[in-house]
Amino acid sequence: MWSEYVQRLSHVNPEFTYDDVSDWNPGDFAALITAGLLYEVERATHVVCDACPEAHRERVRWSSNGTRAFISCPSVGTVDVILERLRRWRASPVQLSTWLAEALALSGAVQPLPDGRLWFLGRGCVAGHTPYFFLAAIEPGQLPSAVAEIRRAYGRVTGVLLLPFSPAEPVETDKLQVADLGLVVSLRAGRITVDSGFIGDQLADAKTGGVRHDAQGKKAPRALAAHRRAIMKAFMTANSLVGMDALARRLGASKSALYGMVRGDKTRYRDDTLNAMLNKIGCPRSKWDRATKPAARA
Ligand SMILES: [Zn+2]
User: Fold this and answer.
1) Would you give the distance in Å from CA 37 to the centre of its chain?
2) Res 144 pLDDT > 80
3) Lowest CB count within 10 Å: 29, 205, 211, 269, which one?
4) Which domain holds residue 26?
5) Is residue 297 part of a domain?
6) What pLDDT is stored for residue 6 in this prediction?
């Protein structure tokens, strides 16, 4: 549910239909509404036919007295639409930015950037650093322009950019660390919580030039760490796991070990633990150790 919510934030219009949310846990759904992270908008004008297997989208027509909604289906004919199915909700990245600033105990007021889908959340203390925090409700292709926008407004600050995805390809973000909301943020008991350990690790990596050495003395640069985070994220999405705690429980490993595996920090885990973890998520070791874009020269 949370991962679906986060993914939808990358859309220009982050809306959910009744069909989208109908299988969500009612308590989680109510928590999103109460937190203002989701709000109801006007009824849908189109709906997917549920009377035949074609899943075609049709314009909703109304009876003259406005009490009955229906669509036409080429195979079934006129199909009544349950009014509940026309309800829609929209995610609120504005409200999310406020909750994130509070969960991270950031100082300063949340400020929207001119771009419209970017927010400065404030500055906070994480693992001995005081980075600037930003939220971008964007899709992967918009990341370079979002980074440029932050640079224009705040200069080359050390920062953390929270995103609704894990970049599949390494993106030049300089002193900005990108963090996937689906990995570092969870909604528990109606409250937003942020896994600052994961963020702190990324900042620590940035401080050392983003380079770690594994037992073979090979470098595990940021591109490889990003590649590994994307592998974990894909497993979490496929298994509806929300947050690193849930992933750690599922894999029977500590969060600290998982962060270490991402960074290639072998002081945090044993080799057989890594192999067992990869076995559970169905990822071959060769894939784990290879970045999407390997360096031209090793
Ligand atoms: Zn149909």
Assistant:
1) 14
2) yes
3) 211
4) 2-91
5) yes
6) 92
**Residue list, CB under 5 A from ion ligand 1:** 49, 52, 73
Determine the angle formed by the axes of helices 255-263 and 271-281, rounding to 10 degrees: 90
Contact call for residues 39 and 55 (beta carbons, < 8 A): no
Are 226 and 290 in contact by the 8 Å Cβ rule? The answer is no
Do 159 and 122 form a contact (C-beta atoms < 8 A)? no
Query: What is the three-class DSSP state of 263?
Result: helix
Question: Tokens 């846990």, residue?
Answer: 25
Cα-to-centroid distance, 200 and ligand 1 (Å): 51
Total count of domains within the chain? 2
Ligand 1: distance of its center to the CA of 48 in Å? Answer: 8
The Å distance, Cα 51 to ligand 1 centre, comes to 5
111-112/118-123 β-pairing: antiparallel
What is the sign of the dihedral through the CA atoms of 216, 222, 223 and 227?
positive
Distance 63 CA to ligand 1 centre (A): 19
Q: How far is the CA of 215 from the centre of ligand 1 (A)?
A: 59
Residue 273 lies in a domain: yes
pLDDT band at 57 (very low <50, low <70, confident <90, very high): very high
Residues 6+ apart with CB under 8 A from 16: 8, 38, 88, 89, 90, 91
Q: What's 64's DSSP letter?
A: T
Amino acid of residue 289: D
pTM, 2 dp: 0.72
Look at residues 91, 115, 134 and tell me which one is the last residue of a structural domain: 91
Q: Is residue 75 part of a domain?
A: yes
Provide the pLDDT for residue 212: 45
